[in-house]
Automatic annotation (TrEMBL):
Pfam families linked: FAD_binding_4
Protein name stated in the entry: FAD binding domain-containing protein
Organism, scientific name: Plectosphaerella plurivora
Similarity section: Belongs to the oxygen-dependent FAD-linked oxidoreductase family.
GO molecular function, one term: FAD binding
InterPro entries: FAD-bd_PCMH, FAD-bd_PCMH-like_sf, FAD-bd_PCMH_sub2, FAD-linked_Oxidoreductase, Oxid_FAD_bind_N
Keywords linked to the UniProt accession: FAD, Flavoprotein, Oxidoreductase
FAD-binding PCMH-type domain boundaries: 59-230
Amino acid sequence: MVAGAVASPALDTRAELEPRTFGATLGCGALNLVHPSKTFYPGDSTYEYENAQFWSNTQILSPQCIFRPTSATEVAAAILTSRLTQAKFAVRGGAHMAIPGANSIDDGILLVSSNLTTLQISDDRKSVVVGPGHNWGQVYKYLEQYNVAVAGGRLAPVGVPGLLLGGGVSFYGNQAGWSADNVLEYEVVLASGQIVTASATSNTDLFWALKGGSSNFGIVTSFKLRTFPSKKVFAGAYTVAGEYVEDFLAAVANFSAFNTDPKSHIVPMVVPSDATNSVGSAVLFYDSETDSNPECFAPFFAIPSIASTMGFKTVSDFAIEVGGLVVEDINDMFFTGSAVGKDYDTLYQGVKISHDVFIAALPELFAAVPVEDFVLLSVNWQPIGKLWSDGSKAMNPTGNALGIDVASKGTYLAWAGAVEWKSSKYDAAVNAWVQKTTAAINAAAKVAGIYEAFNYMGDASGFQKIYEGYGATNQKKLLDISRKYDPLRALQRLLPGGYKIGI
């Protein structure tokens, strides 16, 4: 890991505060002058390739140029160039966030991490340094030869940086808490161009802020992650017919309320095919290479299945399997919310409200968009309870920015909706429906007295608020840290995408 500084020219404060005309043209020209083999313009095959590497068509914009650095030093050069020319820019990791402008930009500089591909396990195999150019499938495949895994993304195509900077949900949540709690060290390029290390002993406030604070503090160019022994796990998808969906929802609530097994993880979802027909499907994960009938999954296994892929497999193979949900060349929109509860009845109510309101809203969606245009519709749930909270504290005693308070509020039931469709002409209609449905679910949860303001960044839409859900104390702390490491607010003004703090 590099911990040092990049020499930078003195910056004129007035020039920084007064955007210049043709900033992107100047910025792209400066990068092309110094790094001609790493700067690409429209019409270049590399530009066209990189500008198509997005999870959703809703993300594709038209940057004036694309810059593909190979080191933290070159990332620093790009940031300084942006500041000097006042060129706005975007940063793309795995491009999983399907929000327009979150990881691309019109008429600015797109910095892509494709060639920031460090991947190096430690001699004792207890940690691995990962560059932001990787997806989780690549990381798991590399680690498989060493019989270890990390608390990373559950779908192979998901990128490394966005998940880790937004908190991160992994298969190991009930053992190790949030993925971010398992980052031991960050290499970060600050707005000043300085390259620093953030860890439990160095720049500790920055270390805390990066665990849920996204790109408000700098550009992370490598992550040092804790590894876990892992040869094979018992995992798969367990799917039940529509006639058993109510039993399936009860099983979700049962697991949320009563599970005490830290080796377990679930991603239960209901997938409607139209306004009246659905199936229930649970992604089930158990960290054991011998136990094929864990008691914690009994409520699901008690329901007859119409399909099951349960079996022993590596984490790498399972992430590829789950990653099969990803369909290329379509439009995606995700939205999220949370309910809280301390007992089965309350958590069941939370599951039912989010499910029932989602399903009841579908006729309005199908009136605006033909049902055959949809690739996937789903609503899923992620229980975050005492096991998760204890895992976070054990892995990361310094804490994170997310503000989860299981001790006083009970188990968080984070729900997420997903809409995937083919034709971009329906973007506005889907967006309007998502906003209306999100408001309706939250309103019903408030009436029931179980609403919680926490929105998990990795599943949120662009209209949703993130940092307010972390609590006022953490929100202020994040803002103060942002101002400390970026006093001129360059990353707020020139890096407009994603969830910004203090704007």
